[in-house]
């Protein structure tokens, strides 16, 4: 399960507990997120942030290893231009795939960091509206 869908799943569980799986509404009659549900959501999001941090570190290390491997192989095969072209093309393509997944992880981590920063300071009603907004804004 990718981190973005995991975040949506966490928000969905919190909304189910508050019986509020519907787009956010403004005005009176707002539902509220319970204190225990709020604490549980924060703990789960913190765990996901720690996990994503480890994945980001692993991807960055993998990125550098592939780069250094390609540089070593280019130096090793420096007398064969066709081999060098294949090596550079393959390494650039593989690095682009890694960068794309890294960007996706950083975006998800940013959303989780925003939740961790803002959610503890919101009232129960505002917290629920924030979670509903993020849940229904996710694609």
Sheet with the most strands, sense and barrel status: none
> Based on helices, strands and strand pairing, what is the structural class?
mainly alpha
Rg over alpha carbons: 22 Å
Principal-axes geometry comes out as: elongated
Q: Give the terminus-to-terminus CA distance.
A: 15 Å
β-strand amount: under 5%
Mean pLDDT over all positions: 84
Care to count the β-strands?
0
Number of domains: 1
Order of helices and strands: HHHH
Low-confidence stretches: none
Structure in words:
The structure is a single chain. This protein has helices at 3-17, 35-76, 81-118, 124-137. It is mainly α and 139 residues long. It has one domain.
SSE layout:
Layout: H1 3-17, H2 35-76, H3 81-118, H4 124-137
Give a brief description.
The protein is an all-alpha fold. Helices cover 78% and strands 0% of the residues. The two termini are 15 Å apart.
Which key terms come to mind for this protein?
139 residues; mainly alpha; 4 helices; 0% strand
């Amino acid at each position: 399960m990718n981190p973005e869908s995991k975040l949506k799943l966490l928000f969905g569980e919190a909304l189910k507990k508050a019986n509020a799986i519907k787009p956010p509404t403004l005005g009176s009659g707002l539902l509220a997120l319970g204190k225990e549900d709020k604490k549980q959501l924060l703990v789960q999001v913190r765990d996901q942030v720690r996990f994503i941090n480890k994945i980001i570190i692993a991807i960055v290390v993998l990125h550098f290893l592939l780069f250094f491997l390609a540089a070593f192989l280019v130096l090793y095969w420096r007398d064969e231009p066709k081999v060098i072209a294949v090596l550079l093309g393959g390494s650039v393509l593989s690095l682009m795939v890694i960068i794309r997944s890294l960007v996706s992880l950083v975006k998800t981590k940013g959303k989780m960091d925003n939740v961790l920063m803002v959610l503890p300071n919101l009232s129960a009603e505002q917290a629920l509206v924030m979670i509903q907004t993020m849940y229904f804004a996710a694609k």
